Fold this protein.
Amino acid sequence: MDLDISLQVMTAFLSPDEKSKLKILHRVSSNRKQGDKIQAILLLDQGYEYAEIARILLIDQSTVWRWYESFITAGITGLLKDNYIGGTCKLTEGQLDQFIKHLECTM
């Protein structure tokens, strides 16, 4: 399902210092997700619409919106924070041991 987030186009909301920091962080980051977040904020600042950014970065419009909200509420640090929490292991202890042995033998 494609969300239509019809919001005012953001333009020039970044300070020159923020722009500079984001560009430097993008250049030195080896984390693709962080790079995408930075690109999204820089593209919003240039006047691109949520749908355009989502299409360019191959993500959902709602993701672009969440990243913008993170940036506005918590700045660059909040934007780059990774909130991913992994799930619990579904393997039994024996299955996990077997899996580890398999990886050690084949890798």
